[in-house]
User: What shape does this take?
Amino acid sequence: MQKVLVGFIYTNGAIFIMPRNINLPKARIHVRKDAWGGSPDEFQEAWLVSVRALRGRPFCFQVWVDEFCACYDKVKPDCIYWKLPEDDEPLPLTEVQMWECLSNDIELFHKAQLADVPMLVYLGEGEYVEGNYWFTIDCLPEKQSLGYLDVGDSDLLDEHKEMNVVRLKNGQIAIYPNNRLKWIPESLATIKAIKTPPPWKVASNAIWDKEWLEQPYELFGDSDWDY
Assistant: This one.
């Protein structure tokens, strides 16, 4: 027996949470007011609450605005500021979040070894911006463990992207995959390492499957099958 409840799937007495919305680290932020039809030159103080994934679209952030004791759950990533900007030109949505969400199901984790390290974000065409690491959102197969057919890209090694959230120096956030970022712990990084792109190829399911799935007899070895 399976039935859908609000935000949950109930199967044979067990409740599985659908991680489409996840809680975020509590932080004081500023929302550019064009997020809800106001002026792009004005900002509203708020608290960061959560984020929701919509496959094929950018993230929707939820904030709580203490001035009105109200939540708003459809703030675009380019309208989220971790600090008030100075005179910098804001980055557009397509440069704040480079890739669309690969799945409706997501999880939050934090790369503790790289907490708050300085970063370079590659926007393309030779343009970089500076920031600091905040946290990471990863896309999950959509309810695959419940028997659903996953039609997303989160399990394709060729396409999978982690969504690393970076606090940019201009006050905005950026949401970028690993292959567009430089992580720079200042006591460990060198100028040469910062300037050199790694010569790594994109991982692919075809290579992984060939090296693992096509060699079952070698895995068994010379077992005599005694139990």
Remarks:
- Helices lie at 93-96, 191-195, 205-212, 216-220.
- The longest helix spans residues 205-212.
- The chain is about 10% helix and 35% strand.
